[in-house]
């Protein structure tokens, strides 16, 4: 189901997740939104390793959603909320950091939504599939790097 809407569920190594979030300069002042949150490891890492103020996940596919819910409960971490909802229908305006590992077509649709909802200075971390800045000039590419086998792109909403 998620493969039809955004991207298939593909778990990522814990070390790579931590490296990606560090690359994005995630910190304790951030409110992280993980769009297509899969098994919840980005949510868990953001609270456990980066001590974010809050972590909010959206996952529409049943199996990853229930796995994520179980992993979050097992972790004992607070400050994580998980929604079984299409993130394109959600209010993302409270985010200060957005993580979205999605296919290019959905990244393009998401960029329109983020441009309209995010406040200036909000960080957007997109692994593998960059935002087209010619189509979405509301974003500034802050940096890009190869992390493991993934190219990561960090943007700022301007």
Brief descriptors of the model:
Rossmann fold; 7 strands; 158 residues; seven-stranded mixed beta sheet; alpha/beta; 32% helix
Describe the overall structure.
The chain has helices spanning 2-5, 14-23, 41-48, 62-75, 104-117, and strands at 31-35, 54-58, 80-83, 97-99, 123-127, 139-147, 150-157. It is an alpha/beta fold. It has one domain: 3-Layer(aba) Sandwich (Rossmann fold). The chain has a seven-stranded mixed beta sheet. Strand 6 and strand 7 (150-157) form a beta hairpin.
Show the helix and strand layout:
Layout: H1 2-5, H2 14-23, E1 31-35, H3 41-48, E2 54-58, H4 62-75, E3 80-83, E4 97-99, H5 104-117, E5 123-127, E6 139-147, E7 150-157
Parallel strand pairs: 1-2, 1-4, 2-3, 4-5
Antiparallel strand pairs: 5-7, 6-7
Helix pairs in contact: 2-3
Give a brief rundown of this model.
With about 160 residues, the chain is of the alpha/beta class. It has five helices and seven strands; from the N terminus they run H-H-E-H-E-H-E-E-H-E-E-E. It has a seven-stranded mixed β-sheet.
Number of strands: 7
Give the class-level CATH name. Alpha Beta
Percent of residues in beta strands? 15-25%
Q: Largest beta sheet: what is the strand line-up?
A: 3-2-1-4-5-7-6
**In one word, what is the shape?**
globular
- Within CATH, the superfamily carries the name Vaccinia Virus protein VP39
Q: Which spans of ≥5 residues are poorly predicted at pLDDT below 50?
A: none
Determine Rg (CA atoms, Å): 14 Å
CATH architecture name: 3-Layer(aba) Sandwich
Helix share of residues? Answer: 25-40%
The whole-number mean of residue pLDDT values reads: 94
Question: What is the N-to-C order of secondary-structure elements (H for helix, E for strand)?
Answer: HHEHEHEEHEEE
Distance between the termini: 33 Å
Specify the biggest β-sheet. Answer: 7 strands, mixed
Under CATH, the topology can be stated as Rossmann fold
Structural class call reads alpha/beta
């Amino acid at each position: 189901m998620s493969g039809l809407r955004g991207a298939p569920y593909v778990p990522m190594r814990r070390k790579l997740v931590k490296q990606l979030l560090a690359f994005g300069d995630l910190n304790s002042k951030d409110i992280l939104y993980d769009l297509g949150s899969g098994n919840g490891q980005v949510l868990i890492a953001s609270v456990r390793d980066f001590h974010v103020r809050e972590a909010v996940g959206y996952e529409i596919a049943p199996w990853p959603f229930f796995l994520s819910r179980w992993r979050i409960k097992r972790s004992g971490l607070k400050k994580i909320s998980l929604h079984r909802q299409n993130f394109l229908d959600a209010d993302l305006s409270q985010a200060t950091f957005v993580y979205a590992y999605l296919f290019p077509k959905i990244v393009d649709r998401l960029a329109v939504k983020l441009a309209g909802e995010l406040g200036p200075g909000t960080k957007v971390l997109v692994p593998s599939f960059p935002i087209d800045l010619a189509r979405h000039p509301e974003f500034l590419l802050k940096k890009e790097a190869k992390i493991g086998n993934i190219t990561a792109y960090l943007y700022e909403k301007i």
